User: Fold Outer membrane protein beta-barrel domain-containing protein from Mucilaginibacter mali.
Amino acid sequence: MKKPSPKAVAPRLNCDKAGCLLCCRAGLLLIMLLPAFKTHAQDFFPEQKDYAVSVGTDLELPGKNLSDYRKAVAANVGIMRLLDRFTVGVNFSYREFSPITPVVVEQIDPAHQSTSTYSSYSTFLFYLSGAYNVSLSEKVKAYGGLNVGVGYNTSSILYQQDDTNLYFGGGVKQLYAAPKLGLSYAINNNVDVEIHAAYNLLAQTGNLTNPTTHVTRTSFSSLTTGLGLMFKF
Assistant:
């Protein structure tokens, strides 16, 4: 009996090996092109060293005289002057602390009770900022500095008992100081991203609304940490 002749089998391509080879070639091509990309990026984003606009947001943890309030989210913006080793600026910041218990009801006697309603504690800050920069690498730097300025806060309490309504509140001016530390990373020549922390100290200097107005918690401290962006121009 005649045996059937064997059939020709087409050679199979090892897909895994071919895929790895293709990836290696693509990776080498990218590595070779990176210097060109970097050069063109530097041309498109020329280095800026004079001025910048900074924007950021902070998480603020209540400290002295703010234990009855929740954490606050602060927003800040500033115009910065960029010097060789120093950064100075003019800044504005705002935060609003919400009371943990906004309404407190007290039983005076079996027939009478009082209700105290507490508003949020809002603070506006206008300040000068200064920092000394230490370069850690081509794109990363650390800095330490101080913010000094004035604050203005508003708060109020509405006291109600039977037919009696008493309102205590107003605005208060404060002196403001905050030592700070941070790290920044240069995304490109025009934009830096930074993380920072500061310890805020505010001390009452006087009542801006009425000498007879009763305002509580006019001096306080807080700890902040946050993120920011600096746009150079």
User: Anything to note?
Assistant: Helices lie at 15-44. The chain has a mean pLDDT of 80. The longest helix spans residues 15-44. The radius of gyration is 31 Å.
